[in-house]
Input
Amino acid sequence: MRIGIDRDLCCGAGTCVLLAPDVFDQNDEDGTVILLDATPGEEQRTAVEKAAERCPTAVITIT
Output
């Protein structure tokens, strides 16, 4: 699994951080997403998929 993000579209809602804190964080200045792990293990799959589904601006991609 490989994660991609589009920081330009991120609104800083923080849902991804709440659902997958080992994979995502937020920038302290503007709240936009920071990708901590672009290739998380399978044990993170469910959390990352939920984060992508619930992202209000759909900035998370999973391949």
